[in-house]
Specification:
495 residues; alpha/beta; Rossmann fold; 3 domains; six-stranded mixed β-sheet; 14 helices
Length: 495
């Protein structure tokens, strides 16, 4: 079973509540990772996020964080805090979709604020779903305050659990209560519990609050056989969320003309033609000097960090706006970091057909400093060019894993040197001894030479281009290093 199908088979637990009750902080605590952006300001979370809760010897489950819901007694969205203005309907739609897929619902409320009309409307809505609901009273900082802070919430008629997500109070107890509700709801699963446990929780720790620890399913480790993780990066309003929706074929991400709609880096799994993918939609990245908002700063940092946890990054550029200074900065950053990436010219349907070839040539000329990076046209609105993007991303991932035997490497070095000798520098021609591959991801090749400083930069570029052609590494990043040595491998340095 693929990782995406395995995740789809796991039970889902939904965190739901009005804005600023601490759902995202609780989400981070339970999945043992700081994935969701948390802030005192209400309305930070908009799109729903998913993470896996694992424990040693315990069945894993999917936890879903949703945006703050502002609902009236007729189950319609009403105006929320400033951070949510204009997004209330989209957030409510996403929350309802999550509830429909959930096995257990955790209604999160704020113990300090007490019971509010929004809490009551949400409770009434969830009661009508017929699904198990656990009322989680957050921001209760100690057992001595539980009775007083929980008193009025008993009126909702749900089983209660007092926690403090910020300080970790009773979070592990909440996890156990959720597992108990899941077990009571699906007793017929029987033997699948052991299968899921073996697949999802082997070797996972079950201790501490886990702040800062990365969930293995969130892309920290990138195994060869796992789903292809694709990070979508770019400026605000380049169409990243629209592309994710086009790939999955539904409105999974909230899309708006307003820049900065996406805040968190959101994982969206997809199974397509027998292959597994995980798309990581990220917040738009503006110039650092223009960022004054702390939430945006957190979002941008999360976006850039997501590129290190993906197999391939898709840098999305608005084709109608040309290559901006910020686009070029992002290209330079990815190229400098040797991040596997491709460039997506989105919104090509808005470019006149006769002008498209010239536009691609213009981009290629301006980005000639990283000519190995493919530039590919696409249209999220018309779902055009998507298959080619996935095919190219898969090819880049394979190229990143290339490993060349030592014998083949040195035959290649002899061929490259015979075709074009290194130029003489300061009356001496550099002498190459041998070549080795130091690592992959990205492929890194080390030339041992008598004096590395005598190898001109232009010749180093020739070496890289030659190795790409010989080993079929057309689009993946590559490192070519020159190291001074006194002789061939295995020879004594004084010979």
């Amino acid at each position: 079973m693929s990782a995406v199908n395995l995740a789809a088979s796991l039970p889902r637990v939904i965190l739901m509540g009005r804005p600023n009750v601490g759902k995202s902080t609780l989400f981070n605590r339970l999945i043992r990772s700081r994935r969701a952006i948390t802030h005192d300001r209400p309305g930070v979370t908009r799109d729903r996020m998913e993470g896996t809760v694992r424990g040693r010897g315990k069945v894993p489950f999917i936890l879903v964080d949703t945006g703050g819901v502002t609902m009236d007694g007729h189950e319609s969205a009403v105006e929320g805090p400033r951070g949510l203005r204009g997004f209330e309907e989209d957030i409510l739609r996403q929350a309802k979709e999550a509830v429909a897929e959930g096995a257990v619902i955790c209604l999160v409320v704020d113990g300090r604020d007490g019971l509010t009309p929004f809490d009551e409307h949400l409770a009434a809505h969830l009661r009508r779903t017929g699904k198990p609901v656990l009322l989680v009273v957050n921001k209760v900082d100690g057992m001595e305050r539980e009775d007083m802070m929980l008193a009025e919430f008993h009126a909702l008629g749900f089983p209660l659990m007092a926690v403090s997500a910020e300080h970790g109070h009773n979070v592990r107890g909440l996890e156990e209560e959720i597992r108990a509700l899941l077990s009571a709801r699906a007793p017929e699963d029987g033997g699948r519990e052991e299968e899921d446990d073996a697949a999802g929780s082997a070797g996972r720790p079950d201790e501490g609050t886990g702040d800062g620890a990365e969930d293995a399913g969130d892309g920290t480790e990138l195994p060869d056989g796992g789903p292809l993780r694709l990070c979508l990066l770019g400026r605000p309003n380049a169409g990243k969320s629209s592309l994710v929706n086009a790939f999955v074929g539904r409105e999974r991400m909230i899309v708006s003309d307003e820049a900065g709609t996406t805040r968190d880096s959101v994982d969206v799994p997809l199974e397509r033609k027998g292959r597994s993918y995980v798309f990581v939609d990220t917040a738009g990245v503006r110039r650092r000097s223009r960022i004054t908002d702390t939430v945006e700063r957190f979002s941008v940092n999360s976006s850039l960090k997501s590129t290190t946890k993906a197999h391939v990054t898709m840098l999305v550029i608005d084709a109608t706006g040309g290559l901006t200074a910020q686009d070029k900065r992002l290209v330079e950053l990815l190229d400098e970091r040797k991040t596997p990436f491709l460039i997506v010219l989105n919104k090509m349907d808005l470019v006149p057909v006769k002008a498209r070839a010239a536009l691609k040539r213009q981009f290629a000329e301006e980005l000639s400093f990283c000519s190995h990076v493919p530039i590919m046209p696409a249209s999220a609105r018309r779902a055009e060019g998507l298959a080619a993007l996935l095919e190219m991303a898969g090819r880049i991932r394979e190229e990143c894993a290339v490993r060349v035997p030592t014998g083949q490497l040195n035959r290649a070095m002899d061929e490259v040197l015979a075709r074009h000798q290194a130029p003489v520098v300061r009356r001496v021609r550099p002498k190459f001894f041998y070549l080795t591959q130091a690592e992959s991801r990205p492929p890194t090749f080390v030339f041992f030479v008598n004096d590395a400083e005598r190898v001109a930069d232009s010749y180093a570029r020739y070496l890289e281009k030659s190795l790409r052609g010989l080993f079929g590494i057309a689009h993946a990043p590559m490192r070519v290093r020159l190291r001074s040595s006194h002789g061939r491998k295995g020879e004594r340095k004084d010979e």
